[in-house]
Amino acid sequence: MSFLTDAERGIVPARVVRLGRDRAAEILDLDELVWSANPPPEYRRLAAESLDFGRTIGVEAPAREAGGGPVLAAIASSSPFDLPVPGGRAPAAGLSWVGVRPDYRRRGFLRALIAQHFADCRAAGEPLSLLFASEMSIYGRFGYGLAATGVKLRLAHGARLRPLPAARPPVELRFETASWQAHGGTVESIDRQVAHGPAARPGTAMHRLAGARRLELMGDPPPSPRLEPWRILIASRAGRPTGYALVRRDGKWDEAALPVGTATVRQFQALDPASGHALWQELVNLDLVTTVVTPWLAPDDPLAAWLEDWRGARPTLVDREYVRLVDLPAALAARRYGAPIDLRLAVCDRLLADNNGVWRLRADPDGAEVAKTAELAADAVAVADAVADAVADVTLDIRDLGSLYLGGVGAAGLADAGLVVEGRPGAVAELARAFGSVRAPGTPSLF
Questions:
Q1: Which residues contact 77 (CB under 8 A, 6 or more apart)?
Q2: For a Cys-Cys bond, which of 112, 202, 300, 302 suits 406, CB 3.0-4.6 Å?
Q3: Residue 267 · residue 126 · CB < 8 Å
Q4: Is the pTM of this model over 0.90?
Q5: Domain boundaries, the chain
Q6: Three-state SS for 150?
Q7: Cα dist from 252 to 231, 255, 258, 291, whole Å
Q8: DSSP of 156-173, one letter per residue?
Q9: In CATH, what is the architecture of 151-315?
């Protein structure tokens, strides 16, 4: 796709292109330039293996110097996910590897990549797009809404956990140096059970490419020779692996020769409460460690309920997954609803005209029907007028519908903020009850 950008220094011709494996070195060079990185060769090899080259795109622009060839000025890639959503599953695309060369910014390249990504999602039958935002202010203008948050805790050595009844069969633990060859199968098996089990959190996204999984497990090199490699703590019951934690300690000592080390837990999964409790009990009692830093956890993670003093863990809240409805009716029909709902939703989508309009959503815990009842101009005034004219019960932007989608953000809170507008008394409460989720959404790792 060729296009012209209205840049600050005049019109710039550019085109969106598909990027194959033969351009892996260019992609990695641009990614490292964008993110100020200088990884070792092994990390670059794993990074290249983690790319799905059938889903990787870029923007080529003219070189600045006369006579030079086209420059790869921006990139983006995505991964396909069979995503758990409340009450069901939906095909989704996890957008990542997004970057624009510092000297080619402000030229519309990101907008062109996003437009191509949306077109690719529709062609692949993926009604949802997900991402993690490097900066919170970037993706709202493209219709992505914050749908999941995460909590990080700093646990003191010996932090007290509420006891659980003795497990039968008991939990056994082993502590080893992590490697893909020795532990990749165990990690993949546990992750698969977490992502596809009946208790899967909405939004749980697991990579299907082996390169990406190896990168998650082994790809982060020690920043200094003093730091140990990643270790893995594995929980088993009756000989069956039931959980794991990927952890690394920094081995620091203060001037009085007392240990002040920090153990950083990068990944944590458990298939049952007993295994999760045993893993954390071991982690908070590691020798020569004064602080254990958790990975990003869902707000309702069991660890918060086990800790006798989670205030002392100094919880930090951060934004995690953002959701964009690319095909609104398909996305709404893919999930289930916690209470019956029959609402007309006036939705404003400035980028995808097919989504813009008034949609009647009729659903109960067994299924959903979604049908467009009115066309609207793609602006917020037109959508607000639909509510004022009693054509719709609720008005909201596609961005806020994305926030509601996984059930982790409440409609009442968005209404209190003036972002969801009620046209019929009780409509916001009906929306809130129907879109709620039994479990808070979240995914254990970046994609």
A1: 51, 52, 55, 56, 57, 95, 96, 97
A2: 202
A3: no
A4: yes
A5: 2-126, 151-315, 329-435
A6: strand
A7: 17, 10, 9, 11
A8: ETT--B---PPPSSPEEE
A9: 3-Layer(aba) Sandwich (3.40)
pLDDT digits (tens, 9 = 90+) for 225-264: 667 889 999 999 999 999 999 999 988 888 888 888 999 9
Point out the catalytic residue in the list 104, 118, 132, 139: 139
In the beta sheet, which residues pair with residue 7? 10
Q: How far apart are CA 205 and CA 192, in angstroms?
A: 10
Backbone CA torsion sign across 179, 321, 159, 235: negative
- CATH number belonging to domain 2-126: 3.40.630.30
User: DSSP 3-state helix, strand, coil percentages of the chain (rounded to 5)?
Assistant: 30, 35, 35
pLDDT tens sequence across 168-187 = 999 999 999 998 889 989 99
Is 447 a residue of the active site? Answer: yes
Dump the DSSP string for 77-145: EEEEEEEEETTEEEEEEEEEEEEE-GGG-SSSHHHHHHHHHHHHHHHTT--EEEEE-SSTTSGGGGT-E
